Amino acid sequence: AQRKLLQHYRIFNGAVKCLDFHPSGNFLVTGDERQLAKILDLQKMRETFTITGHDGAVTAVKFNQDGKYLVTGSKDGKIMVYESNLSSN
């Protein structure tokens, strides 16, 4: 079985540390070693949001089961919870 690349993003200058798909499958959240988390719209094939506020590498990102909330964790010891404001469709 041949695998086909569907999309390619280069949104960070450093390493991607973590990622998670939104339950709808339409969004992807990523965390990097330079204190940022970014949300990608996979249908529009572009970055939608940049999340700041951490003082260390973002090492954990996770949407809750229905995608209403997003949690980020970092080497700075902070856990931050956000409303995602992303459509479930």
Low-confidence stretches: none
For the largest beta sheet, what order do the strands appear in spatially?
1-2-3-4
Order of helix and strand elements from N to C terminus? EEEEEEE
- Measured distance between first and last alpha carbons: 30 Å
Mean pLDDT: 92
Q: Please estimate the helix content.
A: under 10%
Structural class, from helix and strand content?
Answer: mainly beta
**Number of H- or I-type helical stretches:** 0
Q: Could you tell me the radius of gyration in angstroms?
A: 13 Å
Into which percentage range does the β-strand content fall? 35-45%
Q: Sheet with the most strands?
A: 4 strands, antiparallel
Shape: globular
Q: Would you report the number of β strands?
A: 7
Question: Key features?
Answer:
four-stranded antiparallel β-sheet, three-stranded antiparallel β-sheet, mainly beta, about 90 residues
Question: What's the SSE blueprint?
Answer:
Layout: E1 16-21, E2 27-32, E3 37-41, E4 46-51, E5 58-63, E6 69-74, E7 79-83
Antiparallel strand pairs: 1-2, 2-3, 3-4, 5-6, 6-7
